[in-house]
Design a protein that fits this description.
Blueprint lengths: L3 H10 L23 H10 L6 E5 L2 E2 L6 E3 L3 H13 L4 E5 L4 H10 L7 E3 L11 H20 L4 E5 L8 H6 L6 H7 L39 E6 L12 H7 L3 H4 L7 E4 L3 H16 L10 H14 L2 E2 L15 H15 L3
Parallel strand pairs: 1-4, 1-6, 3-9, 4-5, 6-7, 7-8
Antiparallel strand pairs: 2-3
Helix pairs in contact: 1-10, 1-12, 2-10, 3-10, 4-11, 10-12
Length: 348
Amino acid sequence: MSDSRLQDILDVIQQDPGRRGLRADPADNLITATAGDFEAACRTIALHPMPRVAIITGFTIPTARPPVGETDGPPGALYLARALNSLGIPVALATDGTSLPALRAGVAAAHLADVPVVELPDCPGAYGRSLAENYEQDRSCYLNEFFTRAGPANVLIALERVGPNHTLESLRQSGATVSTATFLKSVPAGHMGRCYSMRGRDLTDFTRPAHLLFETPRWVTTGGLATIGIGDGGNEIGMGRVPWETIQKNIANGGLVACRVRVDALVVAGISNWGGWALAAGVHLLRGTQPGPALFDADEEKRLLEVMIAAGPLVDGVTLESAATVDGLPFHDYVAILKQIEAIVAPD
């Protein structure tokens, strides 16, 4: 049974403070393309008889010196881990080396002793192979190595995790009808199957191939492994649920950066951390449980954010500053969304 408060939460987090273009085209945009996905994501965890969740996050900012992770992603993953852990749901966190110290410090500061934090495996050459080649040669061994490090999981969540853009192969497999010539204007030869920032900077060499955990050719079914994506710009794992043409016309550089990797349910948010907050609240709602007050404590959220910034270090992906801001938003404005979610889920 649907809970109308899920839609209220979704409306709150789908504000677009960075004016990225989530709904630039009123009729065909990232929001309309994912109608129903937020509730589906919440149900995936809340109604699962024995969920075991692995959250993959971390987005490297290569223009920082040295390159470090950003403040959007790890804090949302930590929040989601705190919420799920309070429900007795096993959780593991995984990321690249640039965000690993921050996540480990955050987990320690949140007293989540039973939540492992692991570095993502590498797989040289994975970005240069076709979908079929990756599936046949790499995905099985990558999954095995990942689960050896993180422990077993049946729900995978990518939260603010950049993934490879489209190739001609993936474009055709997605069912897109755009012409090859039109596609090549946005994604020239030599720029396909790569990871890009929203500004069009190539991040592939800084990004472990976590897409191998999620991506399968269209003819393959994965069985009992459910996948969820959370993103805010079109270049994250999961955005393959949105047609390439839709991202191309709504997001600046959208044709180039659009991630090809699909998930079962995609949560589009104005800031990805907000998507983590929303998913946590939605799972509690569907389970009929009330989140503990600590999950809505703005001071605690700031404390954990500052711990992670210092330990990472992490920087704001917009300002490049090591400050308690996310995507350029001052903390007060950023955390106001959390207080709005609290008001929605508060008991009558």
